[in-house]
């Protein structure tokens, strides 16, 4: 039985979409990185008496992908990438939590583009605070690197000098604020 981090109490914590961000980074043309965000639309943490009885679920909306370039955003939302018409949401459902030094690893199933794969999110608990409106909030950061090919995201273009336009590895970073129900 693994104890809960100090300040985190049992019960349901609702993820606050307006104070939560999911961002991604992928290498472009082998020489630079493209960064973007996708909206977290809902989620909840159920904190049990210990980490083993705790869980998290999250839903994201790929139609909200933003990279700072409207043309690229439209391409990412198209059938060549995320196909938001057919696959209008991404989900993460935890299957377990374990300690890893001063941090935690959240195991779970990530579904993107209709494909579900197991992932491990390196997670850090940032503590709790009461906001000016009386809500008790908990903050977390998490990161995971995935292979986009594992999720059926295979579009690419060959470069004249060799290599491809979009790398396979994508880093996803989460900055989460949850409110105690």
Throw out a few tags for this protein.
1 helix, 181 residues, mainly beta
What does this structure look like?
The protein is mainly beta and 181 residues long. The chain has a single domain (11-180), classed as Lipid/polyisoprenoid-binding, YceI-like (Lipocalin). The chain contains one helix and nine strands, in the order ββββαβββββ. Strands 1, 2, 3, 4, 5, 6, 7, 8 and 9 form a nine-stranded antiparallel β-sheet that branches. The model has no long low-confidence stretch (mean pLDDT 93).
The helix-and-strand class reads mainly beta
* Count of individual domains: 1
CATH architecture level-2 label: Beta Barrel
Q: What is the helix tally?
A: 1
CATH structural class? Mainly Beta
Along the chain, the helix and strand elements come as EEEEHEEEEE
Q: Could you say which overall geometry the principal axes of the C-alpha atoms support?
A: elongated
What integer is the average pLDDT? 93
Main beta-sheet annotation: 9 strands, antiparallel
Q: If you consult CATH, what is the topology?
A: Lipocalin
Quick gist of this model?
This protein is mainly β and 181 residues long.
Task: Please give the structural blueprint.
Blueprint: E1 11-15, E2 21-28, E3 32-47, E4 55-66, H1 70-77, E5 90-100, E6 103-112, E7 115-130, E8 136-147, E9 166-180
Antiparallel strand pairs: 1-3, 1-9, 2-3, 2-9, 3-4, 4-5, 5-6, 6-7, 7-8, 8-9
